[in-house]
Amino acid sequence: MQLVRIAGPTEPMRRLGDVDGLQFERTSARRLDDDRWQVSGYATDDALATLRERGLEVEAVVETAELSEQRSTLFAKLDDDHAREAQE
Amino acid sequence: MAYPATVRAIEAELERLAADHPDLCTRTVAPHRSHEGRSISYVTVSAAEGGRPVFLTGGIHAREWAPPDALLSLLDRLLRAYEAGSDFVVPAFTDTAPARDIVYSEVTIAAADVKRIVERVELSVLALINPDGRAFSQSSAANAMWRKNRRPPTGAGTNCMGVDLNRNFDLAWDFERYYNDAGDAAVSASNDPCDFQVYVGPSAASEPESQNVASVLRERRAEFYVDVHSFSRLILLPWGMDNNQTRDPAQNFRNPAWDGRRDGGLGGAYGEFIPQELLDEHTRIGTAMHDAILDGAGSDPRARARSDYTVQPGLALYPTTGTASDFAASLQFTDDPPAERIIAYTLEIGMDTDGEGGFQPVPAIYPKIEREVHLALMAFLSAAAAD
Fold first, then answer.
1. Residues of B whose CB is below 8 A from A29
2. pLDDT of residue B156
3. In terms of CA atoms, which chain B residue is nearest residue A79?
4. Where are the beta strands (DSSP E) in chain B?
5. Would the CB atoms of B145 and A27 count as touching at under 8 Å?
6. Domain containing B198 — which CATH number?
7. pLDDT in tens, B157-194
């Protein structure tokens, strides 16, 4: 999974909701010009392939390895907290 | 309470705030438990009778981890500053990530302003609307992107769980009746329980978590409301259903004559009516929130570029229905007896870029996100405490 920015014409960008494996943030939509928009979201490899098949531009903001490292940092803290809470 | 907080830590912090500030802070258990049986509570800060009712919420979307934490630390700082008669201080923060080293300035909000806020406002904060969803999202990295609540599967033929609480409120909830085919295709809402993001639920306000929010809005008769989300550096004002217009009051969400004819902002004949005075007031207060974040960044141009939020209506590319903030705003047109003027926003904190981590910032950058919540909401509370 990667955090990506997706750009393309209005019509296919409005149909991002039907891309399996894409968790996009609706409010991130920004108009680039009259008929082009940009949206940010988290995409699996399959979702990235679908987006490219639809002719949309995809730019990685956080690559898979970095995202995994961020998750590891967050879950290390949460796992410690959950373990401590389980003992209370 | 260290970020990211567990569900249990959030509940414990609410209890602690009420216990440590018994003359100022009251904890109330919301009327509805979550589907998994969790008790949901909120606190109300009030130093005097008759304060203007303000309501702040967070954590409606499970995967957005920073808003509940930042709301609780806001309460902690506000209460301690008021009781000590001291300034509200947002500490300086240095983003020490490699190649950045960006300094965000310390910000001081005067003790007199803190006093005015606490004594003129009745502030209710429901920091975590959706505890089941957060618990699931924090249960493993594989579940981290979970957004909805944890409603069990609804009926035969589906094993899919969860409702998007921010599509479940009773405002144009039945979006297929509301829009024409083009609007229906564009709307960010779904009747499919297996939609991972925006399933609207089996009926309007079907969910205990959205019922809790509606209950507090109505019982407290909130006149100022902010629902804190992440991400996108946005301050969103009403409406999200269609383009705003100030000319024709008959074009409004209550008017069935427009059912099936609204296109969701594609440039057709319909626009959602908002009175000019109400739009102006939303713009004025939203701009004050924007300025508080931007001015609080200090003089480093890189810090300022990363602290420049946009104030805009909820509608951009995707129309939305049944959201908490639009529902809150709608009550001034639908409630019986009529509600007072209601100012309502969705605050989208943080960013996907600049190392801010999108839905889940890492602890090292969290103070930057937290300070933006505090600065924006202190400006919002100052506006509520005025006049």
1. 316-318
2. 67
3. B139
4. 25-29, 41-45, 52-58, 88-90, 93-95, 102-104, 107-109, 121-126, 224-230, 234-237, 244-245, 272-273, 310-313, 343-349
5. no
6. 3.40.630.10
7. 778 999 999 999 999 999 999 999 989 888 999 999 99
Residue B186, pLDDT score: 87
- Report yes or no on B352 lying in a domain: yes
Identify the pLDDT of residue B366: 97
Residue B256 is assigned to a structural domain of this protein? yes
Q: What domains lie within chain A, and their CATH numbers? A: 2-63 (3.30.70)
Count of domains forming chain B: 1
- Does residue A40 surpass a pLDDT of 90? yes
Rounded Cα–Cα distance for residues B227 and B257 (Å): 31
How far apart CA A76 and CA B8 sit, in angstroms, is 17
Q: Considering only CB atoms, which chain B residues are within 8 Å of A56?
A: none
- Tell me the average pLDDT across A38-58: 96
pLDDT beneath 70, residues of chain B: 98, 156, 387
Establish if B31 belongs to a structural domain. yes
φ, ψ for residue B306, nearest 5 deg:
-90, 5
How many CB pairs (< 8 A) connect A and B? 95
Q: Prior bond to B231 cis, omega within 30?
A: yes
